[in-house]
Here is the input.
Amino acid sequence: MESLLTTPFLTALLAGSLAAGLPLLLAGLGEQMSEKAGVLNIGLEGMMLLGAYCGFLGAWSSGSLWLGFLCGMLGGLALALPMMLLCVWLGLNQIVVGIALTLSAEGLTALLHHVQFSQSYPRLPRVDTLPLPLLSEIPVLGTALFDRHPLVYLAILAVPLLAWLYRSSLLGLNLQAAGDRPAALDAAGISVIATRSLAVLFTGAMAGLGGAYLATVGAGLFVPFMTSGAGFIAIVLAMLGRGRPLWVLLGALLFGLCLSLTTALQVAGLRVPTDLVQMLPFAAVMLLLLFFGRRAALPAALTRPYRRGER
Amino acid sequence: MTDIPQIVGRLLQALLPLLLALACGALLLLLLERDPVSFYATIIERGLLSRLGLQESLTRSAPLLLLAAGLIVAFRAGLWNLGVDGQFLLAAVITAALAPGLAATLPPWLALPLAMLAAFAVAALWAALPAFLKARYGVNEIITTLMMTFLGISLANLLIKLPFNDPATTSPQTLTLATADRLPRLLGSTVHLGLVIALLALLLVHWAMTRTALGLRLRILGANPLTARHVGLPVTGLTFLAFGLSAGLAGLAGAVEILGVWGTVRADWNPAYGMLVIPLVFLARFHGGAVIFFVFVFAVLSIGGETAARRADLPNYFLLVLVALILVFLALTEWLSARPLMRKRG
Amino acid sequence: MSAQHQGKAPPLIRFEQVTKRYPGVLANDAITLDLHAGEIHALLGENGAGKSTLIALLSGMQQPDAGRLLIDGQAVRFSSPRAALQAGIGTVYQHSALVPSLTVLENLMLGRRWWQGRRQSATRRRFTALCNDLGVRLPADALLSSLSLGERQMVEIVKALWEGRRLLILDEASAMLTSAAVSDLQRSLTRLAAKGMAILFVTHKLPEALAFGDRVSILRAGRLVASRSAADLHRRGAEQAQSEIISLMFDAPSTATAAPAPPPSFQEKAPVLRVQGLRAACGEQEPQLDGIDFSLSAGEILGVAGIDGNGQRQLAEALAGQRTTLAGRIELGGEAVQAKSVPQRMKRGLRYLTDDRLGEGSLPAFPISLNLLLKRVGDAPFWRQGVEQPREIEAYAQQTISAHNIRAPGPHTPLGSLSGGNVQKLLLARELEGQPRVVIYNKPTYGLDFQTQQLAQEAIRRQAASGVAALLISPDLDEILALSHRVAVMAEGRIVGIVNNGPDARQTVGRLVVGGTA
Here is the structure.
C-alpha cells in the first residue's frame, strides 16, 4: 500500500477529481436552483452539451477562453428558454420536454459539428493555469488544487455564494417558497412564474458553463455526445443535495474522485476496473436511500406546474 | 369508443406533430444547403421500399417494441421508469453470458426461452429497489431509476470485462452465440423471430392494459392514487408488479437484440434505445397500435436516415433532431387541444 | 375587557346595508355593522351563515352588490385585496399562507421585492415589537414546520399586523388550537385591542365568542340577527345569554317554508355497526380522531353534525378502511373489521359515499361505465377470468343510467363531462348497489342543485326504510334534523354528544356544535 501514497499518485488523483468534478459541480448547482423552485429540469444533459459545443466554438473562433465560456452559457440559455416557455409558462410535462430538449441538443450539436469540421477534431491550445501565489507551492495539494484554471476557483466560490443566496437573501426565500408552497408565494404578491423562470434560466446558463468547461479546459476539443450522461448525474447530485450547495460540491468531488481514481491507480501501477469504481457513489447513494429513505424529501411542488387557485 | 370521426381526429392529432417536425427538418436541411426532397426520398426508398432496408427496419423495430411495451405498463400506472436503458443492457449481458452455455447443453426450443426468461427476471429484479423505495417511502422513482441505470450500465460492463469475458478476443466482450443457435429467421429473410415476439408482447400488453381487470387496476393507480386508495386497491403490490413487468419487458428487449442480432455484447456498447422510445410512447399516447406505427416509422427513419445522411454528407444524428421536434410539437398540440377543456371547467 | 368605545366617535369601519348575492344565494342581506377601534367584535354563525362573504367584502376579495363600506365615516370601495391592505385591514385566513420549510422570520420577509433586501435586523426588531404587543414569545429562527399549530397561528397574526394595521380579522382562528393556545390567543388579542386596534373575531364557538368579545353579533342565513354588547350579556347571566344566542343561531325560522318533519322516532334493535374507542392515524394538520364510540341499528340514520373539518372526514375514512385503526374496535354485524381492508369491508356491506366526488370518488377522464364499476374491478359478470366483458359492462351502465335517471349521452361518455348532480346520482347508484348494510354518506347533497338534493335525501330515506343503517355526515343542520333518528356532534376529532332527534334537538345540537354542554 505504501507505493500508493506517492506524490504523483495523489497529485493525479486530486487534480483529476477536481477536473472531472467541475462540470458536474456547475451543472449540479444550476439544477439545484430549478429543483428548489419546483421545476425538474431533465433537459440538463442537453444544456450541457449545447454549452460544450457553443463554448468550444466560441473559444476556438475567438481565441479567448472567456468568450468561450460566455458562448457556452448562452448556449445553455438557448435551450433553457424553450424549457421555461413550455414547462413554466404553459405547464407542459417537464419530463417529456426535458427528454426532447436533450435529444435535440444531441442531434443538433453532432450535426453542426459535422457540417463545420466534417469529422476532424480541431484542438484548442493547452490552457494556462493560474497558480495562486504561495498556496500552489504546497507539495501535492499545491499543484493539485491551487494551480488550476481561474474558472475552477470561481466555480468553488459559487458554492458559498449560492449558499448565502439561499439562506440569506429574499430571492432565496422566493425560490424556496415557489418549490414548497407556491400558493403562499403568490398570496404574498410575488409571481411564481417569474421566480421559476429565473431559476430555469440560471440552470441553463450554469449547465452551459459546465459543458463549456468540459470542452475547452477539460478536453480541449468538442466530440459529439461528449457529456455522456454527466447531465443526468448532475440531476441526481442536485436532488441528493436537497437544497444545499455544499452537498453538491462534495458529491461532484466524490464522483470526480471515482472517475479519476482509475487513472490514478494506473499511474500507481494498479489495475482496478473503472466500472467498479464508478459504481461506488451510486451504490452508496442507493444504500443510503434504502436505510434513510424516509428523509429523501424533495420540494412539495416539484414537477407540478403552478396554476392559481389549484391546491 | 370506436366511432370514426374520433379515430380520425386522434390520428390527425398524432400525425400533426410528425408532419410539422418533418417540415422543420426540411427547413434545417435547406439551411445546411442540402436538398430535403431527395433526403426524405432516400429515407423512404432505403428504409422502406428496398428489400434489405425494409428487413433492417423490421429487425430494428423488435427491441424498440419491447421497450415500448414495458414503458406503456409503467406510464399507464403513473410510474416514471426512466431506467429502461440500464435494465436493457444488464439483461443483454446476462443473456449473452448464458446463451452459449444453454445452447450447448439444451435443445434450442428450450435454450432460447430459458435465456429470455433469465433476462426478464434479472431486469425485473433490477427494478425491485426503486419499486420498494417508491411504495414504502414514496421516494421519487425518476431519481432512483436514473441511478439504477448508471449502476446497471457499469455493472454490465464490469461483468463483460471480468467474469463473462471471452479470453479469445482482444477487446473485452462476452462469448459469442453461434449464428445457428440464434433466434430463427422468418421466411428466408434476415428478420428474426424476435419481431414476432415483440409484436405479440406489445399487443398482449395493450390488450391487458385496456381489456383486463389487472390493467384497469394499474390505470386507476396511474390516474389518481387517491382514487386507488378509496376503492381499496393494493397499491404496494401494484407498484411492484408494474415496475417488475416494465423492467422485465425492457430486459426481454435486450435478450431479443442479443439472441437475434449480435450474439454477444462488447464492453461499452449501449444503444440507449430507451431515451428514444420514451418520446415515441408519449407520441402514441400509450396506445399499443399507435406505438407499433410510430416505432416502425422511427425504425424506417433511422435505417433510411443512415444512408440518406451518408449521401448528403451529414451525420445520422439528424434523426435525433427530428424526434425532438416531433416531441415539442406533440407537447404543443396537446396543450392546444387541452385548453378548451380547461376553459369549460374553469 | 371592558368595552372602551363610548359610542360617540365614528366607528372605524361601518357596514351600511351591505348586500352580496351569489347565483341562487343571498350571502349577505342588508347587513349593518359597526367595528370600533379598541374593541374585539365576535361574529358568530353556523356553516353558510354568510361569515366568509363578510370577510371577503372587508378584505377586498369581493365587492358588495348594494350598500356601502365606510372607514372613519368616509365611503370606500376596495377593488382588490391590496386596496384593503392599504386601508389597514389585515386578515388571518383559515388556510395557512405560510411556507413550512422557511423560518418564522423568513416567512415574514416573504413578499418583499428582492431588491429591497432582507433588512435582517430591522425585521427582527419589528418582530420583537409585535411579539411584545401580542405578549407572546416566538422563536424567530426556527423552521415554521417545527412550531405548534398555536404558534403558527401567532405567526400568521404577526404577519397580518406587519404593516401596521387598524383592523385585524381572524377567520376561525381557534379552530385547530388547544385550549391553552386559545387562552394565549385571547390574551394577545385583548392586548392588541387595548392598544386601539379593532378586531373582528369570526368563529362558530359560542364560549369563545362570549369570552373574547366586547360585542357579539350573530349572522344567520345572510342576515345580522342580533348584536349584543358583552356588558349586556353579562348582566343577564351566562346561562341565559347562551340560550338566547343559541336560539338566535339555530332556531327554525317561524316563517320557514314547510321544513320536512323529522322521521318517526326509531326503535332500538341489535346494532349492525358498533364502534368502540376508535382512534385512527391522522396527519399533523388534521383533527386527531380519538375515543369514538357509537352504534347503529338496522334502518337507523345517525346524523353527524358539527362544523366542517372537525374530524368528520377522518371518521368516515377510518370506518371505510382508508385509514389505519390505531386503537379500538369496529364491529360490522358482530364481526370485528378494524383490521380488514377496504374491499373486505365493502364485501361485508359497508359503503362509503365520499364528499370529494371528482378528486377521490371517481376518475373524470374515464367513461361512466367503468366509473360505475370502480369498486368492483375484476368481479363477475363484468370480468371473467380477469377479462373485461364489454357487453355486460355496457348493459349494466345503460341500465343504471336509465334506472337512476342520469343525464348522459351514453355509457362511454367520460364522467368529467357530466354535471355535478348527475355525477352524484351515479356515485349514489354505485354505492347503493347490491345489499348494503351500512352506508356512510359524506355531504351527500353538498353543492348540488335543489332537485338532486331532494333525490339524494329521498334515496337515503328509502334505504333506511328498507333496513340499511346510515351515517349521515352533513354541514347542513336542517338536512340532518330532517333525516336522522339521532344526531352525533363532532368537535376536534371527538364525538361530544349524541342527541335523539325531536322537538328540542335543534337547541341541544346547536349548543353542542358551538361548544356548550348538552
Notes: The longest strand of chain C covers residues 25-35. The interface with chain A takes residues 82, 96-102, 106, 109-114, 116-118, 120 of chain C (CB under 8 Å).
